[in-house]
Amino acid sequence: MSELTEYQGKATMEKITSLAKRRGFVFQSSEIYGGQSGAWDYGPLGIELKNRIQAMWWKEMTRLHDNIVGLDAAIFMHPRTWEASGHVENFTDPLVDCKKCKARFRTDMISEENLAAKKCPDCGGELTDARNFNLMFKSHIGPAEDTASIIYLRPETAQGIYVNYKNIIQSNRMKIPFGIAQVGKAFRNEIVTKNFIFRTCEFEQMEMQYFVKPGTDEECFNDWRNQRWAYYEKLGVKMDHLRWYKHEKLAHYAKDAYDIEYLFPMGWRELEGIHNRTNYDLGRHAEFSGKDMQYIDQDNNNERYIPFIIETSAGLTRNVLMILCDAYDEEQVAEKGNDDDWRTVLRFHPDLAPVTVAILPLMKKDGLAEMAQDIRKNLQDDYATDYDQSGAIGRRYRRQDEAGTPFCVTVDYESKEDKTVTLRFRDSMEQVRVPIEELSTRLRQEIKSYKRIK
Ligand code: GAP
């Protein structure tokens, strides 16, 4: 058995980035031109994983809650939106520049000593005074490039929900408390974009805004904190890799705020924020638009009030990174009689895995490939399938382990005789014989009863 090196068995950002590229999860944007920082492309496995994470969140928020509905608002919004929300004035990072090497830093990213001495942490050169730098991307819409044509790329999806809150009450007869869920792109001109897809300039958010009566907000806030925690438990995430972080310094709109943090390979980092945003946003939109944003409670003597908002705001692309890190495992398998000492395996929950079942004929010849293709066709409607007929079977299993495929089906000579196949489990590497006609039902049962073993 080979000796353990320092990095064997451990997830590092380098290994995850390299696996993500090698297996087609995530590629650097415009790589042939040297890459575009802050932007990433999701490959064949990556888009499947991202879609499944999004679908789980969507189901959790909308289908499993009678009083939450969906929305897909435009990325372009009237520029007054961002004045009302406070983003034009407040959505800034304090930055310093090095006069010598021209590097730019967020002041909270450099040490207090360097900041006090105005000394560049990279080259020792002199730093400029800190200035506030707005994180919103600004462009112009229409033919003229003047102040009247300014347009922003939205820095959060939330505002699209607030400006539609009255439309949704009217069209869908919603009664407080109710929620609106949305998934979509957001853009921020982030200066520090390291750590792969953790913090990027273009990313996706999954946000839900819950409209409540003032006075009930604190109870609702606690309830949503519990629900969001339970959601990650349901996803099968390692719960000792999650913790709460309470914000002491609150954003301009918030009364209370907690983050759910995940233990990424680079340390504890924010995964999702749960915020009590008070009636700040709707109040400001009422003020800036001149429209009445009050809710009229017809069941309560037409009582009028501007609702408080409890927000749950998760990064979809950051969730992809979290799920990749959480699933990543390296395992020494020599004692189990395999020829490789180590295998890399992504232990995705079967509901999240980009491929649920891979069909592998032991040989291409003797009708095995055709038989395997037929099995694949029969499963395709219900499961995400893959088909691989090239290379030794052990290597094909390893490739599927790396892609996080929970089940492999091997078609061999016995299959021709007795119409059974080998069902191989990714996590335990156990193999059982299953009649072909029972395969679909068996897979359904295995997915339903899935328990992570490591
Ligand atoms: N509407 C509230 C809001 O946008 P936020 O804490 O700024 O709050 C919410 O962002 C979530 O969006 C974060 O917890 C994170 O998961 C994700 N997120 C924020 N900035 C991001 C970035 N630059 N790249 C990737 N994800 C980001």
Q: What would a concise description of this structure say?
A:
This protein is an alpha+beta fold and 454 residues long. It has helices at 13-22, 44-63, 80-84, 87-90, 112-117, 158-162, 165-172, 217-234, 280-289, 316-327, 368-380, 393-403, 413-418, 439-448; strands at residues 26-28, 40-42, 68-70, 92-97, 104-106, 131-134, 138-140, 150-152, 178-187, 202-212, 242-246, 256-264, 267-276, 295-297, 303-305, 308-315, 328-332, 342-346, 357-361, 385-387, 407-411, 420-425, 431-435.
Task: Describe what this molecule looks like in 3D.
The protein has helices spanning 13-22, 44-63, 80-84, 87-90, 112-117, 158-162, 165-172, 217-234, 280-289, 316-327, 368-380, 393-403, 413-418, 439-448; strands at 26-28, 40-42, 68-70, 92-97, 104-106, 131-134, 138-140, 150-152, 178-187, 202-212, 242-246, 256-264, 267-276, 295-297, 303-305, 308-315, 328-332, 342-346, 357-361, 385-387, 407-411, 420-425, 431-435. It has 454 residues and is of the alpha+beta class. Strands 3-9-10-16-13-12-11 form a 7-stranded mixed sheet, sandwiched between helices. Helix 2 crosses helix 10 (316-327). The longest helix is centred in the N-terminal third of the chain and has 20 residues, at 44-63. It starts with 12 loop residues before the first helix and ends in a 6-residue tail after the last helix. 33% of the residues are buried. The model has no long low-confidence stretch (mean pLDDT 94). Glycyl-adenosine-5'-phosphate binds next to strand 10, strand 13, strand 16 and helix 10.
